[in-house]
Amino acid sequence: MTTEELYRQIGGDYADTLRRLGSSERIQRFLSLFLREDSCRALADALREGRAEDAFRVAHSLKGMCLNLGLRALGAAADTMTEALRGGRIPPAADALYAEVKRAYDQVEAGTALLDAPN
């Protein structure tokens, strides 16, 4: 799978990300770094442990990384989670919101694993 095909599959903005990062190889490198951060696990841990401020910071950072990488679907899910956590409390809908973040994250992770090696 090419990087452009991945972005099409996950609802990302390949053209804007390519313009910003300059090459498909750089996009792949940054996607790999992004996935190594494992923000999704950090968010799950903070939510499970009731650490609302940490969960907010992780969700906000995740949203920002997604915006920089053109990961629109995951970014939108992270944005919804961020806004729900903005009040400093874990909302009743946190499990459902996290499930949406995790679903989008898993799509990025699975698709990235199928990427062709950069030339």
UniProtKB/TrEMBL annotation:
Pfam family, one: Hpt
GO biological process, one term: phosphorelay signal transduction system
Ranges where the HPt domain occurs: 41-110
Signal peptide: none
Top-level taxon: Bacteria
Protein name, as recorded: Hpt domain
UniProt organism field: uncultured Anaerotruncus sp
